[in-house]
Amino acid sequence: MKQTILVVEDDKMIRDLISIYLKKSGYDVVEAVDGEEAKEVFLSKHPCLIILDLMLPKLSGEEFCTWVREQERNEVSIIMLSAKSRIEDKINGLKIGADDYIVKPFEPEELLAHIEAVLRRTGQFCQKITYDGLCIKPRKGEVLLLDQEVKLTKHEFNLLYYFMENPNTVISRESLLNQLYPYADKLILDRTIDAHIKKLRKKIEENPAVPKRIITVRGMGYKFVTE
């Protein structure tokens, strides 16, 4: 599973350069050009790490960093980028929640080394799968839809996790039954999957009657759609 990194930088040349190097290194990359857009992308994509410029329009990097820490505390890592090189600026950045602080200008290889070091320390907290604002955290047993927690039963959680681990793949009812009830009688529980999915749709679909995430593939099973 690739880790997602959010690059928040208003300078397009720098943003593109960082994104190119990150993608070549195997990361999924999402971008934002200002602090307000960064909030929207953060809630939609739930990144594992944020590369954050401090001099941003609309909302400063410091304000965005503080907001992020209020949302997910220490579940996402933050590396600040800044032309401010005074020791006081670095200390302030670390105090408000940054995991690392890099002074501009910098070499892309240097940034990658810092990213790898930060993720070695904090990566165990970032075991999550996210699609279009829906985020599942198997390590914590949590599901978020944008910034709202979704309460699921054990079977609903396991069902959603299995779907999100296998996106855009048709999964038969038999496979879903084996996943949830490996030792049960299929004949007794055949319609149970339909009931679980109906309840799950009510919790994660905008319109459960016309689902867009978990769709029925007639005669074959179900598919979790991300495309």
From TrEMBL:
A Pfam family: Trans_reg_C
Keyword Transcription regulation among record annotations: yes
Record InterPro entries: CheY-like_superfamily, OmpR/PhoB-type_DNA-bd, Sig_transdc_resp-reg_C-effctor, Sig_transdc_resp-reg_receiver, WalR-like, WH-like_DNA-bd_sf
Chain ranges of the OmpR/PhoB-type domain: 126-226
PTM annotation (4-aspartylphosphate): residues: D53
DNA-binding region per Swiss-Prot/TrEMBL record: 126-226
Main localisation: cytoplasm
Protein name per its UniProtKB record: Transcriptional regulator
Species annotation: Oceanobacillus caeni
